Amino acid sequence: MRRVVISGMGAVSACGNGAQALISATQAGVSGVRPVRFPEIDVQRVGTAAAMSPEAKAAIDEEMAHRMREPVANYALLAAREAVKQAGLETADFGDACGVSIGSGFGGAQTLNKNYLKFGAEGSMRLDPMSVPKIMNNAAASWVSMEFGARGPAYCMATACSSASQSIGLAYQMVKVGAMERCLAGGSEAPLESGVFRVWELLRVMSATKNRPFSKDRNGMTLGEGAGVFVVETAESAIARGAEILCEISGYGTNSDAGDLLRPDAERASACMNVALQDAGLSASDIGYVNAHGTGTVANDVNEVDALRRVFGDDLSELAISSTKPVHGHALGAAGALELVSAIGALHEQSAPPTINFTEIDSKIGIDPVSNTARAISTDAVMSNSLAFGGINVTLILRAYG
Amino acid sequence: MSMDKETLTKELIALVADEGMVDVSDIAPEKRLEDLDIQSADFVMILMAIEEKYDVYISVDNELSEVETVQDLLDLVITKIEEAQAA
After folding, report:
1. For residue B15, how many C-alpha atoms fall within 13 Å in the half-sphere facing its CB?
2. I need a surface site. Which of A139, A211, A216, A326 has the fewest CB within 10 A?
3. pLDDT tens for each residue of A79-102
4. Across the interface, which of A220, A262, A302 has its CB nearest the CB of B59?
5. What region holds the Ketosynthase family 3 (KS3) domain (chain A) (predicted)?
6. Per the CB < 8 Å rule, is A220 touching B51?
7. Are A219 and B62 in contact (CB < 8 Å)?
8. With respect to CATH, is domain A249-399 assigned 3.40.47.10?
9. Domains of chain B, with CATH numbers?
10. Same fold, A4-241 and A249-399
């Protein structure tokens, strides 16, 4: 079987443009969370999100302006450009040999929201004529394919908070079996629109204060936005091009709970991690860092730690586990990609990024998730989990290439 | 807005019955919500109604995860409403 590696990565997030900005922020524990206000929500209950600054958004809008594109596609394009540049891909490397696998949970939220407001509030039927191509979930994947002339298979996983992780996992599998030589894989999400924000408020899983995963006083998650894209290819092709290999994707597991749409299932999440370990040919004890899904909701945190205990044993004190969501927010369909960038940062810097905003160990959970400051690790294998609504679990395992 | 606890309790019981779609006569403080067939999706409806009526945001988290009986729910919601009114 062919070995599959990552030879380029790119990200845009509330932590700034570029994968390195995200790695630096997660390592230093500098949060991109800022106040957000939506004039259309008359009484807004939750006042923060890991949003890009208004200046950064305006700059992207200007640089990327296209009447058939909105932020969700722009973010993906920016991340893909960075990844492609780092991997040193040239025109001849695309074509039929290169696929695209870029997921999104919501697709074109901005266009959808503007249309609803125009129709609902103004009663106007003069909606955006380019709405369909802007809203469709695969727009980001297609724009990336067009930008580079990547004419292999193009996929768009729309599996809520597991979209990006499954997209990357699918790319890994396709490259591994030889269905494509390389793939631009990741996820993109631009959900910080009034209507979307309000329905998250109504589901009551957002914190009105601060996002504190695994902490006793946690009370919900904080939304984020952005995109992460990777060049996933065979080790052979990366080496032939003289590209620097960032890491190997050594294991992928995905399964579903087939249980409850919203309530997670620890047994299934643990089974998913075991599938990935088996795929990687590793034991649990080989993993030196876990980037947890760690949303900071009681349902996730209790479930995920239960699942981790089933895989890694009752005593989790020796394993570095953290959630970087308080830094880059919960970016839904982009979450797994932003978190994989953070996990690569951990592998490269041999440093587990901290779970910031942590105040106190919760006796129900009983772990200290690398609280508040980064912790040195010594490992060549890291894991990243995504556990989505819909009962869709994903685990990716990365190894130092050698 | 300030009101005595008894009135507030009565209002809240009516609201829980309404949003949880159970007969108000079935609701007693010691009853377990599970036995009344009030599930997590009903909680979201109850909390939305509380937000509209009392102007307080309660997330489906932490303290709420420990609520088992009608009385637990009332205690939590009344505390939150009082906190919001004091703020």
Report:
1. 22
2. A216
3. 999 999 999 999 999 999 999 999
4. A220
5. 1-400
6. no
7. yes
8. yes
9. 5-86 (1.10.1200.10)
10. yes
